Automatic annotation (TrEMBL):
The keyword Chaperone does not apply. This is DNA-binding response regulator. Signal peptide: none annotated. It comes from Rhizobium pisi. Gene3D superfamilies: 3.40.50.2300, Winged helix-like DNA-binding domain superfamily/Winged helix DNA-binding domain. One of its GO terms (molecular function) is DNA binding. Residues 136-201 form the HTH luxR-type domain. The modification 4-aspartylphosphate is found at residue 56. One of its GO terms (biological process) is phosphorelay signal transduction system.
Amino acid sequence: MTADDHIVFIVDDDARIREALGELLESHGMHAAAFESAGDYVTADKPDIPACLILDIELPDINGLDLQRQIADGDHPPIVFITGHGDIPSSVRAIKRGAVDFLTKPFNDADLMAAVHAAIAEDREKRADRAERDKLRQHYLDLTPREREVLPLVVSGLLNKQAAAELGISEVTLQIHRRNVMQKMAAASLADLVRIAERLEIPITHSRRVGGN
């Protein structure tokens, strides 16, 4: 990990804490950006790279847990909470909403760094997953309208003749569309195409009917 391929955001209203965290992260070769309020963090321009958000609970403009709830539907980095007034209900709520850790001040530097590394690794994985999903979605958009009709029939397990009958086309034409779907979706096998359809949440409305019944 280099300082250029990630960033750690620090949101804490205590300047001494911001400075200490920045120095700690820098000593580990990590790049950080600090803010004294949730509003400053939300409105700041942020680089599109793997990140972690170290977030204090008590902030001057909004509670950290409320900020976590407000940004839950967006693409935000994994959160590591820090607080000087920790309590079990708050920590449970934070973790249930996806926080990586909930640390009470004064915390152990090693515990914080372990949480930060875990958060950045989680964000890398989320970004890779999102990139793959976007690529698959683009492949799907490249399909013709007929090919988009063929895809769910194929992954549902229908035989070629059943799928062809469903669409009112010949079996040969169905096979051509099926081959095009496999190529455009970059599917190595039927099982791979099924996995892709699941990733894209393509509705499967048919099930295999033996003998066409």
